[in-house]
Design a protein that fits this description.
- This protein is an alpha/beta fold.
- It folds into 2 domains: 187 residues, NAD(P)-binding Rossmann-like Domain (Rossmann fold); 135 residues, N-(1-d-carboxylethyl)-l-norvaline Dehydrogenase, domain 2, CATH 1.10.1040.
- It is 47% helix and 17% strand.
- It is built from 12 helices and 12 strands.
- The strands form 2 sheets. Strands 5-2-1-6-7-8-11-12 form an 8-stranded mixed sheet.
- The longest helix has 22 residues.
- The radius of gyration is 19 Å and the shape is globular.
- The chain starts with 9 loop residues before the first strand and ends with a helix.
Amino acid sequence: MDSQPSPSANVLLYGAGSVGGVYLYQLLHAGCNVTAVCRSNYEAVKTNGFKLSSVRYGEVTYRPTVVVRNISECANDTFDFVLVCTKSFPGSTPSLPEQLRSILDDRPQTAIILAQNGIMIEEEVIAAFPQNPVISGVIYLPAVQTGPGTIEYPEMLNLFELGTYPSTAPESHKAAARQFADLMIKGGGNAQVHEDIQVARWSKLLLNAAWNPICALTLTTDGDFLLTSEPYAYDLAWGVMLEIIELARVVGIEGVTPEVAEKKLSIAKRRAETGTGREVSMLQDVRQGRAIEVEAILGNTVRLGKQKKVPMPRLETIYALTKARGWALAKDRGT
């Protein structure tokens, strides 16, 4: 990578996989100082950096400003932003706040960006760090890490939707969200700041709750699944989306409508027609024997449905099956 201008922000990237690796490139391109916590790919990144093959950015090789294996290695550093690109595992031990505590204690000015899937993922973070800006992020970035530090990014799609949690956060927190969005744009991506990010998060849930478990359970891409049993495959995905639309209506999330769902589903329909189906993140995790985001995407949703007395028979069935798949993967890993 060419030499960069003086850093505009100090950023800790926690989770340098496919999405994190692309955002690393954008932040570096924006002139940021980026410390990347690389866990499974540490040796490859430390030695060779990242290699990105992208229609948007071309063929590029680049390195984080600093590479560490564990977050404790930078506990004495101060960051403007902590960008969390790890999977979301509510109820895990240690929890995400426990993992971040060494770099956030007594640093209320550091903004926490949650670039994660699912709903109801922000509460435990803001409970642990009530003074810090908590910025919830919704990602549209179809990238795959094909090997340690090697990323394939075959589409132009690049959108990072951002908003404070809660939406009534102080103006200084909203300013942090705008500043981070500006960095994403300066780095060559797209970013939007929303007054209420939950509308965008629930709209993304329409995709995540349908395609992630369906593709993970069937070992098909989104486009291929639609071709396997017309019209039943389509009806299953659409039925899941309709259940989420009704739950969103009951809990007061406006803007999650059938029209929005049709636009989301049209992405997979187009991929089915063109033979360009994508391996969604949960399918990638199943193929590689990794833990899957069952609770953040499915568990939180079906439990909220139970609480609000919204029937969700399709999603409850998919949750039970995906939970079992996750259990089997953990058993195979010996965890």
